[in-house]
Every structure is written in C-alpha cells, then in structure tokens.
Amino acid sequence: MLASIPSPLEAQAVCERVGLVGCSAAYRDLVDALRRCAGLDATVLLEGATGTGKELAARALHYLGRRRGGPFVPVDCGALPETLFEGELFGHARGAFTDARRDMHGLVAQARGGTLFIDEIHTLAPRSQAALLRFLQDHRFRPLGGEQWVEADVRVVAAANRSLEQGVREGWFRGDLYFRLNVVGVRLSTLAERAEDVPMLVHAMLARLAAHYGVAPRAFDAAALAQLCSAPWPGNVRELENVVHRSFLQCDGEGPLTLPGGTGPAAAPAPAPLDYNGERAALLCAFEAAYLRRILTAAHGNVTQAARLAGKERRLFGRMLKRQGIARADFQDR
Ligand SMILES: Nc1ncnc2c1ncn2[C@@H]1O[C@H](COP(=O)(O)OP(=O)(O)OP(=O)(O)O)[C@@H](O)[C@H]1O
C-alpha cells in the first residue's frame, strides 16, 4: 500500500508538539527519517543510547501516521518479568489461571487501531522473544487460556538502547526477531553528537520549568551555557534535563542561572575541548529560532506581518522559518 508522506513542515510541527527539540543536522535527519517512515505501517526499530529521545520519536511516528486517531500504548519490557510478558501483551481468558476470574484484554488489544511501543526490547528473555516473533509473523494472537485467535490491528514500534545486531552476534537476541523488527531502523544520536542542540534544549527546558513553577523565565549565564554545550552527557538529554532542573531550583533571585558546583557536566570525567565556532553557531541558531517564534506569536502566524515586524523581506523571512523547521500554522489562532 502506498502511504502518504507528511510534509517536512508537518513533520517538524508534530515533532515539536511531542516535545522533540533541536536544530542540528542530526536532529533534522531524525525528523526526516521519522517523516519518511511515519506513513508506512511497517515495524520500526529505534536504536540509541539511554535518554536520546526514543520514546518521543515513537510518539512522533504515531502522531505522524494514519493511526494517529488510535491509542499509543507503551510497554516497558525492562519492567516486566518474563513470566508476565505474554499475559500483559495478549491478555488472558477467564479461568486461564487461579486468579483469572474474568477475561482481560492485553496491551495489543488496548492498542487496537493505534501503535504498540515496545520499549527496552533488548531486555526480553528468550521465551518472550519467541512469543513476540510468533506475533509479528502471524499478526494475530491468542489470549492465555483462550481458544480464539484474534487478528491484531496495531503498528509495532520497538526501541533498544543496546545494539540488537550485536545481540544477535553475541547470541542474546534472536536473529529472526531482529530482522522482523528492523524492517525500518532509525538511530538516535547521542547528545554529544549533536551538541549544537544544547542551547535550544536548555531554552525549552527553562521555559517549561518557568511555566511549571509559575515564575518568570530564567536563563544561564554565558559561562554556564558554554559548559553545558561542551559536556559529554553520557545520560544524554535526560541527564541534561536533571542538571538544568537542579540549577533552576538552586539558583535564587532573578539573575542568570549558574551551574551548582560539583554537579552534572562540571563533575564529568573528561570535558570535550571548547569548540568556539560550533558553540557560536549553536547559540546563534537557538537565538534565531526563539526570535522567529516570538515574532510569529506576536503576528499570530501571519508571515507577512511577522516579516514586517522583523524588518525583513517576506521571502527571506519564509526561508528562515523553513531552515529552522518552524511551521507558521502552529502560531495561528485556532
Ligand atoms: N530531542 C529532545 N528534545 C527534547 N527533550 C528530549 C529530547 N530527547 C529526549 N528528551 C527528553 O529526555 C528524556 C528522555 O527521553 P526518552 O524517554 O524519549 O528517551 P529514551 O531514549 O526513550 O530513553 P531510555 O532508553 O532510557 O528509555 C525525556 O524527559 C524527554 O523529554
């Protein structure tokens, strides 16, 4: 079946709506990869280190695809003991075991018409891998203790923070299951690989924190921001979020935020060398995006008016929006 591919602007808007933030080439490549496979119903495997945004990417895939009107149901394999996996996924029939007093739908049934997001799939025990493979091959399942097979109506998106290909080589992940999952593979970059995104991420995090705590927006001083840009971030965006949150809570007053001593990147083992040009470009990119958003907000998404406010020619302003992947529709009154 030929699927319709969302436009780049639509993809950018959906990614922003689910909370994905960035302006680096790696970020734009990710949005483009999600855009291209969103319309297909094929299984997608998202691979990337912890905290790189795999769950957000899975949500973006869901809301970009034709199943967006259905549910998005996550299942965390890391939190599920092997003995519960099949029951959680496929449900059970009344009487399947001592406590099964009535039929219970599993997560596949709950995700009907939508997306089943199987997170931490690299932690699946061999028995659960076999059950999942059967399900992916047949597109149907039988609740535990049940007699009827049920046709599944879900798209499967899986995520792993270890390489499954390596798992196949080392013998802890089934090759046949890997090939079923990896119909389309998308790799998420580490934060160190896309350090240009740090200022924009920090800006978005601080805006969210200010709104959450009901206080005026705050910003880091230049030294702190430079330090955040050059830290190695082994825990990726999640770790950056923790450091920003701690700084936000620990800095009193209304001046610029500083990094609490001995925390986060300051305590990291080997800071990357300062990349002046990279950081300058990243700061300018984040500044430009924030500026364009402010102006579009003021102009209620009207590009001609926004260009006039910015003192720019409309075509040039439009090109700046496109380069930043900003959709004017997001700023129009609904
Ligand atoms: N590009 C991004 N923009 C904004 N926030 C992000 C981005 N990537 C990750 N985050 C934030 O970082 C945190 C971790 O993201 P997420 O849970 O999607 O990562 P993950 O790769 O699924 O992690 P894990 O493998 O540990 O489950 C979340 O709070 C999320 O909002």
TrEMBL record:
PROSITE patterns: SIGMA54_INTERACT_3 (PS00688), SIGMA54_INTERACT_4 (PS50045)
Gene3D superfamilies noted in UniProt: 1.10.8.60, Homeodomain-like, P-loop containing nucleotide triphosphate hydrolases
Domain Sigma-54 factor interaction: 20-249
Keywords for the protein's UniProt record, in alphabetical order: ATP-binding, Nucleotide-binding, Transcription, Transcription regulation
Any GO MF annotation of the entry: ATP binding
InterPro entries found in the cross-reference section: AAA+_ATPase, AAA_lid_NorR, Homeodomain-like_sf, P-loop_NTPase, Sigma_54_int, Sigma_54_int_dom_CS
Any single GO BP term: regulation of DNA-templated transcription
Record has Chloroplast as a keyword: no
This protein's name: Sigma-54 dependent transcriptional regulator
